[in-house]
Amino acid sequence: MGLLPLLLMPAVVLLVGEARAHHLIDLLHQRPTPLAGLLSGLAHPVLGPDHLLFLLALSLVGLRHRSRWMLGLLATGLGGSLLGLLLPGLPAAEALVAFTLVLVGLVLLGRLDRRLLLPAFALHGYGLSASVLGWSAGPLLFYLTGLLLSQGALLLLALKGLKGLSAALSTGRRQALAAALLGCGAAWTWSALVG
């Protein structure tokens, strides 16, 4: 993947509309079954532009810390999902999830420590659990499995795809990418707060 598509992705996503993760089971008008739960878990991170962009940006941060970084993120994301199932209703959760793009932009600029992204990823997990509240144990377990597989695959693919980009990412390009993330995060945070 070249640098230009990465830089243009936030602008395209902004043109599509505000970031709201859609649930595949709702889009297909299905009821919760183990298969529907698995498919929803696999698709959920991809259907929410804020989640997808965050995952891709995390890969840029993790280029130097591959396996430990990815495993830590997946564990905290799963922990966030479980917390969201046990203690739902965090005020302004969607705005906080959108704000994580601002955080990752600041990490890419070297203004914040990358370890702050672990709780930010947990917040994404928390947000992804809201749409499955009330599901029975079977579909819920398959949803969480699909979610874990999907996020792991996206992180792994992005890490592999961005490996060659790391050397070509000059300071100016890194700043432009961070600025795009800051812009998307600020716009989606504002939209979630006033919407």
Characteristics:
mainly alpha, 0% strand, globular, 195 residues, 10 helices
Overview of the structural elements:
Helix 1 (3-16) runs parallel beside helix 10, helix 4 (49-61) packs across helix 8 and helix 5 (66-86) packs antiparallel against helix 8 (137-162). The chain contains ten helices and no strands. It is mostly helical and 195 residues long.
What topology does this entry show?
Elements: H1 3-16, H2 24-27, H3 34-47, H4 49-61, H5 66-86, H6 93-108, H7 117-129, H8 137-162, H9 165-168, H10 171-194
Quick synopsis:
This protein has helices at 3-16, 24-27, 34-47, 49-61, 66-86, 93-108, 117-129, 137-162, 165-168, 171-194. It has 195 residues and is mainly alpha-helical.
Domain count, please report it.
1
Distance between the termini: 34 Å
Oligomer: single chain
Indicate the low-confidence ranges by residue numbers: 1-21
Helix percentage range: over 70%
Q: Structural class given helices, strands, pairing?
A: mainly alpha
Number of helix segments? 10
Largest sheet: none
Q: How many β strands by DSSP? A: 0
Order of helices and strands: HHHHHHHHHH
Q: Please report which band the strand proportion falls in: under 5%, 5-15%, 15-25%, 25-35%, 35-45% or over 45%.
A: under 5%
CA radius of gyration is 16 Å
Mean pLDDT: 83
Shape: globular
